[in-house]
Design brief:
The chain is built from 3 helices and 3 strands. It has 89 residues and is α+β, with helices and mostly antiparallel strands. It has one domain: GTP cyclohydrolase I, C-terminal domain/NADPH-dependent 7-cyano-7-deazaguanine reductase, N-terminal domain (GTP Cyclohydrolase I, domain 2, 2-Layer Sandwich), CATH 3.30.1130.10. The longest helix has 14 residues.
């Protein structure tokens, strides 16, 4: 899984203070906790949920989530889904 967050990084870039950006460790823990307690039939739904968790931080305006499903099809290494959600969606 890959997650790209879109937000204004200027405050953290200027202050060099972790309080001015997303706490990535905390975000990862929220995502992992959710994934460990849910069941998904589709990786699209998993990506949608992960993006929604990312958007709970008011600084994040868009989250791009990519998920690979290894061995999903014969003769193909993996199937990949990339989903983007914006705060206004």
């Amino acid at each position: 899984m890959s997650v790209v967050l879109h937000m204004d990084l200027r405050p953290a870039g200027i202050s060099d203070d972790v309080n001015d950006t997303v706490d990535y460790k905390s975000l990862k823990q929220k995502i992992m906790s959710h994934l460990e307690t849910q069941s998904f039939a589709l990786i699209e739904r998993m990506a949608y949920d992960v993006a929604g968790i990312c958007l709970t931080d008011a600084r994040v305006v868009q989250a791009d989530v990519t998920i690979d499903k290894l061995g999903a099809l014969r003769y193909v290494d993996s199937v990949q889904v990339e989903l983007s959600r914006r705060r206004d969606d």
